[in-house]
């Protein structure tokens, strides 16, 4: 080992107060102590003396390293740490670093040195402060294993010191790339200039050829223009003579049309008046139908109410008859009871009178004196004494007899109660039976009414359902016809959109003079075969509104904005720029039947001629798409034309081709008058059918009324049926109760018979006892009986007692009968049947009144409906009559329209002929103007006898379209033509054979001139604008090529020099890095095997970029003993720690420091792995001094010495140090 750390001296450093010597330190020293004792401060002391920065020492400022400064009580102004090393020669060398306030001081062997010298001296010992190759902090072991490849590369660059060359490497690499880029740029510039020199030579040759062609082209142009101008002036003279003849014919046709217009106007007024009357009657019919529809549900309700009231009256009358019958029966019952009561009272009075007579006769027969009575009582008492035993027996038997009598009375009372209940339940059953009869009657009548209502509902549903389906079908058919009418411009009074558009035009005509009409209203194809073609070309202008001036158009647009109406297209006659008709297009012979669209279109009035020219735009119409394609693009090679086929295929001169469509076919139907008429009549028929169906559909309100009545009847029927079921259930319950009561009543007869039998037997026993008592009494009363003249005393007593008992019993019977009759009378009197009769009489009277009111209401409703229907029939008759008149007027009007149309056709034809001649004149003048302008613009100098090129006016039509009116434009054009007509051209240069030729030869000669000009022009265009300064350009290109060659050579030399410098630095950096990497890569696997104590364990490093490994990451992987390969992140904590220690020991072996400090590296290790790591360190003690901070005995028991650090209690932490040499003890 180059040096050995003997001990550490600390003075007032952190928790170490005063001056302490920690050591001597052995090859394997373990630092132990409890948590918080200052072990980590020992690590900080070693880091501090080895030159670590403040940020790694867990403080913010240097003065916080002084003992007590953390609590604001520093013990000194300075603190120091000294490390004493023993060198290979046996001498000692000390390194001290101290803190003085906020700065630090470095000393080597007591001499003050700079920090750079201090760090350099430490590096000589193998201590790299930047790489921290001498210590591992607490918790840093696993983080080393989990570093990403880039971080691992940075670690190797620190250890190998190749990172010091990184900035120089990047700088030289950037300079090399920039130099190579400059070289490439110079090379490309050199190639470009060489090509430029070659191009300059070619341009010089082209410029000379171009000048020759240009002179030849100018001569041909003058000859062509003279040729065209000569024949143009001759055509203008011929057309002007023809124009005068056509103008006379047009005036004659206009007078005939004015007469036909007056007749048509009168017919339209009469037809309009009848049409308004017809619409008014139809409105009145609809109003009457609405009234009938409104009144019909009320009539149905009234009819139903009458039926209901009739049933109610019948029910009330039945109930009244039943009430009267019950009242009469009730009165008869009361009279019978009163008669019975009178008879009972009379019988009672008769009986009382007979008793009174018997008492008087007995009183006279047996009348005792007072002395005899006293004697009777004395004897009775004496007899009682003698018969006391018999009396006692008699008393006991009498009590039993009385008890049975009570039982008999109780059973009799219960029997009477049950009989009363039987009678009450029987009455309730009778009432329920009567209710069932009423409910049956109600259910029967309700079911009949429900069946009637359901039949009526079925009929109404059939009508309404059928009418709904029919209405839907009719509406769909009407929509279809309306669409056709809308497309064909027929149904402008019925289709809302077309009607609105018609109203808009009518409003415009009334508000703003100068509004004509929509384009399609004023135009008509000459034959229906042109319908689709005309529709295609006109396009959006078909519905455009033609007005006289731009001012009128702007007024109309403002009106649309104010009324929030849809946008419209306007064609102001003074604003639009219409191209004149090309007369030569009328003379196309091949293909056949090619015509101008303008010629197949009739329009009226003549004033809109300019708008028609603008919309048709010289378009041609052909028979087939093939012909149209040929005419549009192949007929004239110099020009193209807009051409449309009869099927709607449109070939535009701009190259756009569009075909026909279904929508186009629909729009084209506007021109078919026959179909328009058929569609209109079909729509009227469908409208009439729709009205009839709507009438039937209006019965839906009646259907809703019937539905509600059916629901009410069903509800009442449901309640009645439920009530019937409940009443039947009550009757069954009553019958059950009656049977139960009858059974109970039947049980009383045996009980009462048994009691009576027992009492009779006891009466016999009483008689026997009494006989015995009588015998006693006979002996006692024998003399007394002789005195009063009776056989025995009992004769006297029985006669008196019997007569009294019989009288009492008889009176009781009479009283019971009277009570029974009175109770029945009270019950019958409580039943007020008479009020029930009065109530039902009132109900019948009320029902009769309501029935009469309902009948009256029904009659009134029926009369109103009959009156409305009669009125509607009358209106329908009137409507039919007026409709016949309207049809007749329309027929007359159509005839007048045909006359007007015929006259208009004649006018149109004559005007077209006139316009054609006028247009041809204008075309020829425009052609002459265009020729002169061409000469002026292209600087073609033509010879003139009178005038010059300045007299040819500029054409302002295209640039002033938006600011000038058409009248001004026309005036300017005429002024131009008049001024240009004064120009006299000298045709002497034109040969005679070019003057006297017909039209066919004219076209051929023109084509010949154009071919020659085109050929010259093509030759000129091939030259592509020659550079007339090509000689000067060639000279400049030669000079630039010379300069570029020199610049290219210089950049090549710079690039070579930069590349050499870069390769040198690159090699140096690569060599340093790979020296470290290869050493570590070779050492790490055996170290890992030694730590794991297993030869199957594997550890290997691999660079991601083998050529320049410092630019990318380094991969580190381990295969733990007995396990398969897996990423480092999937290893356990202990396996990661062992892998990290293997990497640390391998890195440390590259440039080994004299000592290695490890802070609690065993935190994640179990005892087995701790023993393995400790054993490895133990094996390396000959070549490596290790200081380990550990809390586990399994680790520090292998050390050569122990340094114990313990805390001392005080104002702040104060660490004490104990040292123990273990080499004197056996292992």
Share of helix, binned: 55-70%
Number of strands: 26
Instruction: Tell me what portion of residues adopts beta-strand conformation.
Output: 5-15%
Q: What's the Cα radius of gyration?
A: 71 Å
Which sequence of strands runs across the widest sheet? 2-1-4-5-6-7
Helix-strand category: alpha+beta
What count of helical segments does DSSP give? 24
**CATH class category name of the domain at 371-485 and 698-793:** Mainly Alpha
Largest sheet: 6 strands, antiparallel
Mean pLDDT: 78
In the CATH hierarchy, the third-tier topology of the domain at 371-485 and 698-793 is known as: Helix Hairpins
User: So, CATH architecture of the domain at 371-485 and 698-793?
Assistant: Orthogonal Bundle
Outline the low-pLDDT stretches.
362-367, 487-495, 956-967
CA(first)-CA(last) distance: 25 Å
InterPro entries: P-loop_NTPase, RecF/RecN/SMC_N, SMC, Smc1_ABC, SMC_hinge, SMC_hinge_sf
GO molecular function: ATP binding; ATP hydrolysis activity; DNA binding
Protein name: Structural maintenance of chromosomes protein
Keywords: Cell cycle, Cell division, Chromosome, Coiled coil, Mitosis, Nucleus
Element layout with pairings:
Blueprint: E1 3-13, E2 16-22, E3 28-32, H1 39-49, E4 78-87, E5 92-100, E6 103-108, E7 111-113, H2 115-124, E8 135-136, H3 140-145, H4 149-160, H5 166-365, H6 370-386, H7 388-487, H8 496-511, E9 515-518, H9 519-522, E10 523-525, H10 531-538, E11 545-547, H11 550-562, E12 570-572, E13 595-596, E14 601-603, H12 609-616, E15 620-622, H13 625-633, E16 643-645, E17 650-651, E18 657-658, H14 662-668, H15 673-697, H16 700-788, H17 793-830, H18 833-937, E19 944-946, H19 966-981, E20 984-985, H20 999-1023, H21 1030-1092, E21 1098-1103, E22 1114-1119, H22 1133-1150, E23 1155-1159, H23 1167-1179, E24 1185-1189, H24 1193-1196, E25 1201-1208, E26 1214-1221
Parallel strand pairs: 3-24, 3-25, 8-23, 11-12, 15-16, 23-24
Antiparallel strand pairs: 1-2, 1-4, 4-5, 5-6, 6-7, 9-11, 10-14, 13-15, 16-17, 17-18, 19-20, 21-22, 25-26
Helix pairs in contact: 4-21, 5-16, 5-17, 5-18, 5-20, 5-21, 6-16, 7-15, 7-16, 10-14, 21-22
GO biological process, one term: sister chromatid cohesion
InterPro entries: P-loop_NTPase (IPR027417), RecF/RecN/SMC_N (IPR003395), SMC (IPR024704), Smc1_ABC (IPR028468), SMC_hinge (IPR010935), SMC_hinge_sf (IPR036277)
Pfam families: SMC_hinge, SMC_N
């Amino acid at each position: 080992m180059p040096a050995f750390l003997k001990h550490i001296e600390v003075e007032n450093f952190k928790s170490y107060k005063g001056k302490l010597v920690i050591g001597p330190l052995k090859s394997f020293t373990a630092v132990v102590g409890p948590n918080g004792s200052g072990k980590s401060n020992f690590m900080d002391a070693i880091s501090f003396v080895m030159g670590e920065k403040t940020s790694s020492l867990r403080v913010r400022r240097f003065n916080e390293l002084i003992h007590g400064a953390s609590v604001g009580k520093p013990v000194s102004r300075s603190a120091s740490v000294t490390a004493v090393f023993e060198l290979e020669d046996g001498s000692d060398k000390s390194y001290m670093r101290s803190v003085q306030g906020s700065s630090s001081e470095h000393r080597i062997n007591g001499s003050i040195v700079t920090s750079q010298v201090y760090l350099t001296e430490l590096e000589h010992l193998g201590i790299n402060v930047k790489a921290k190759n001498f210590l591992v902090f607490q918790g840093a072991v696993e983080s080393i294993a989990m570093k990403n490849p880039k971080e691992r590369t940075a670690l190797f660059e620190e250890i190998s010191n190749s990172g010091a060359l990184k900035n120089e490497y990047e700088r030289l690499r950037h300079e090399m790339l920039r130099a190579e880029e400059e070289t490439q740029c110079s090379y490309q510039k050199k190639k470009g200039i060489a090509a430029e020199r070659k191009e300059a030579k070619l341009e010089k040759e082209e410029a000379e050829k171009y000048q020759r062609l240009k002179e030849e082209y100018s001569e041909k142009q003058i000859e062509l223009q003279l040729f065209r101008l000569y024949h143009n002036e001759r055509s203008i003279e011929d057309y002007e003579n023809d124009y005068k003849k056509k103008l006379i014919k047009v005036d004659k046709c206009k007078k005939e049309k004015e007469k036909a217009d007056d007749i048509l106007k009168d017919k339209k007024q009469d037809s309009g008046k009848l049409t308004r009357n017809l619409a008014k009657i139809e409105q009145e019919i609809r109003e009457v139908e609405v009234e009938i529809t409104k009144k019909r549900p009320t009539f149905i309700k009234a009819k139903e109410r009458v039926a209901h009231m009739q049933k109610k009256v019948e029910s009330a009358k039945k109930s009244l008859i039943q009430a009267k019958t019950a009242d009469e029966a009730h009165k008869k019952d009361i009279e019978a009871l009163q008669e019975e009561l009178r008879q009972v009272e009379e019988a009672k009075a008769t009986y009382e009178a007979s008793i009174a007579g018997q008492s008087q006769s007995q009183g006279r027969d047996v009348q005792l004196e007072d002395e005899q009575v006293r004697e009777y009582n004395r004897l009775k008492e004496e007899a009682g004494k003698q018969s006391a035993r018999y009396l006692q027996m008699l008393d006991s038997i009498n009590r039993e007899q009385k008890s049975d009598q009570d039982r008999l009375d109780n059973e009799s009372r219960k029997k009477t109660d049950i009989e009363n209940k039987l009678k009450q339940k029987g009455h309730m059953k009778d009432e329920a039976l009567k209710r069932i009869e009423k409910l049956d009657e109600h259910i029967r009548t309700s079911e009949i009414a429900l069946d009637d209502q359901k039949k009526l509902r079925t009929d109404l549903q059939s009508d309404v359902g059928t009418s709904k389906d029919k209405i839907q079908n009719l509406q769909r058919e009407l929509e279809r016809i309306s669409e056709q009418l809308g497309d064909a411009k027929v149904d402008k009074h019925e289709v809302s959109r077309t009607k609105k558009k018609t109203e808009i035009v009518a409003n415009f005509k009334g508000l703003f003079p100068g509004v004509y009409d929509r384009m399609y209203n004023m135009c008509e194809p000459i034959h229906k075969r042109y319908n689709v073609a005309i529709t295609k070309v006109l396009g959006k202008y078909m519905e455009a509104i033609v007005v006289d001036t731009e001012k009128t158009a702007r007024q109309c647009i403002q009106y649309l904005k104010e009324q929030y109406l849809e946008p419209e297209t306007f064609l102001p006659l003074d604003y639009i720029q219409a191209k004149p008709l090309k007369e030569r297009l009328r003379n196309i012979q091949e293909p056949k039947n090619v015509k101008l669209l303008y010629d197949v279109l009739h329009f009226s009035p003549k004033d809109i001629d300019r708008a028609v020219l603008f919309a048709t735009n010289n378009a041609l119409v052909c028979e087939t798409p093939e012909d149209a394609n040929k005419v549009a693009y192949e007929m004239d090679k110099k020009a193209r034309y807009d051409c449309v086929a009869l099927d709607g295929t449109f070939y535009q001169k701009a190259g756009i081709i569009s075909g026909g469509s279904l929508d186009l076919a629909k729009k084209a139907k506007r021109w078919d008058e026959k179909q328009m008429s058929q569609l209109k009549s079909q729509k009227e028929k469908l409208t009439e059918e729709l009205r009839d169906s709507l009438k039937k559909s209006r019965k839906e309100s009646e259907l809703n009324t019937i539905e509600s009545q059916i629901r009410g009847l069903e509800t009442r029927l449901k309640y009645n049926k439920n009530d019937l079921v409940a009443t039947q259930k009550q009757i069954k319950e009553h019958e059950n109760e009656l049977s139960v009561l009858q059974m109970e009543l039947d049980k009383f007869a045996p009980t009462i018979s048994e009691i009576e039998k027992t009492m009779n037997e006891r009466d016999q026993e009483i008689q026997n006892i009494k006989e015995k008592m009588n015998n006693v009494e006979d002996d006692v009363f024998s003399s007394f009986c002789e005195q009063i003249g009776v056989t025995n005393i009992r004769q006297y007593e029985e006669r008196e007692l019997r007569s009294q008992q019989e009288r009492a019993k008889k009176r009781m019977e009479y009283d019971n009968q009277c009570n029974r009759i009175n109770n029945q009378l009270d019950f019958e009197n409580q039943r007020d049947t008479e009020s029930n009769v009065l109530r039902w009489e009132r109900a019948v009277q009320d029902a009769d009144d309501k029935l009469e009111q309902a009948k009256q209401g029904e009659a009134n409703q029926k009369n109103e409906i009959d009156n409305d229907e009669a009125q509607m029939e009358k209106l329908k008759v009137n409507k039919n009559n007026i409709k016949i008149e309207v049809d007749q007027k329309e027929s007359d009007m159509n005839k007048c329209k045909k006359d007007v149309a015929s006259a208009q056709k004649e006018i149109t034809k004559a005007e077209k002929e006139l316009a054609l001649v006028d247009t041809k004149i204008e075309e020829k003048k425009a052609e002459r103007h265009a020729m002169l302008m061409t000469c002026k613009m292209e600087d073609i100098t033509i010879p003139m006898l009178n005038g010059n090129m300045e007299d040819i006016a500029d054409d302002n039509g295209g640039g002033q379209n938006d600011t000038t009116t058409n009248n001004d434009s026309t005036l300017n054009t005429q002024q131009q033509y008049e001024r240009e007509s004064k120009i006299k051209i000298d045709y002497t240069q034109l040969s005679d054979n070019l003057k006297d030729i017909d039209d066919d030869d004219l076209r051929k000669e023109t084509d010949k001139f154009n071919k020659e000009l085109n050929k010259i022009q093509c030759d000129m265009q091939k030259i592509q604008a020659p550079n007339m300064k090509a000689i000067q350009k060639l000279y400049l290109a030669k000079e630039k090529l010379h300069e570029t060659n020199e610049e290219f050579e210089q950049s090549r030399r710079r690039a070579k020099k930069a590349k050499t410098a870069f390769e040198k630095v690159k090699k140096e950096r690569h060599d340093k890095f790979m020296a470290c990497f290869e050493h570590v890569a070779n050492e790490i696997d055996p170290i890992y095997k030694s730590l794991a104590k297993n030869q199957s364990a594997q550890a290997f490093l691999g660079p991601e970029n083998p050529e320049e490994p410092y630019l990318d990451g380094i991969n580190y992987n381990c295969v733990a003993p007995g396990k398969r390969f897996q990423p480092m992140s999937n290893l356990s904590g202990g396996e990661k720690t062992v892998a990290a220690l293997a990497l640390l020991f391998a890195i440390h072996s590259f440039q080994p420091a004299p000592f290695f400090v490890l802070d609690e590296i065993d935190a994640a290790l179990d005892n087995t792995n701790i023993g393995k790591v400790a054993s490895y360190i133990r094996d390396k003690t000959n070549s490596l001094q290790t200081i380990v901070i550990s809390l586990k005995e399994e680790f520090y028991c292998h050390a050569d010495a122990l340094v114990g650090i313990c805390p001392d209690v005080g104002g702040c932490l104060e660490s004490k140090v104990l040292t123990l040499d273990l080499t004197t003890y056996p292992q």
